[in-house]
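Hello Y.,

Per our agreement to keep a running log of every chain we model this quarter, I'm adding this entry. I've kept the format consistent with earlier entries: sequence first, then predicted structure.
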Amino acid sequence: MSNTIQSGDLCQLLGRMGGAAFFDDAATGSTATSIVCASAKPVAGSYVGGMLRFITGALAGQEQQVTANTSAAFTVASAFTAVPGVGDVFIIIQKIEVQVTAPENIAQVGGVAQTGADWTPLLQGAAVKQGTLTDRSGSITTGGAAQTLAAVNASRHYLLIQNPLSATTQGIATAESLFFNFTATSVESEPSIELAPGDIFTMEGSAISTELISVVAATTGHKWAAKEM
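Predicted structure for the entry above:
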């Protein structure tokens, strides 16, 4: 069983896909400025502006811009140095240009009306935040009583909280869960967020809370690890 793809077959496949590349053999009747297709039927006018390049035969490596095309032939801007031979393979690459413009008004994002200027950072890519991590690690002063892990921070852009995996690293007799919450006082149940032993919570990217963060656990001396930037 042969795995060879004939040029005409590939050409027809690309044509059906609406692709920007065209691949075929030159047929009888071709001239130095008009290349007749051997087997494919390109859509008339669809390759104007593309570059027709021969990849086999005496004209291999030569290319000219397509100025017109019918369903059977291509006309090029300047003559090739000779008439292509029957069966000489050529390819056409059509230039594709993609433009992205920020609209003047885009309904809302996160409840805030957006304009073209507002979308500039999204189109260009968000700036990388760099800085020094502040250690917010600590331990429970009184079991069952909430305490502050991090105060309100309007410039916060990263937060990590880890509940150590083992009793040894938690600094207590038996490993247990750690609970934290934003603004509201933490409790050892919902709506606080529970971190089981070994769990890690991170906050970064486009969704950062600037609120006070409180923490609570059942046992006095329960340690946690936390970093803020």
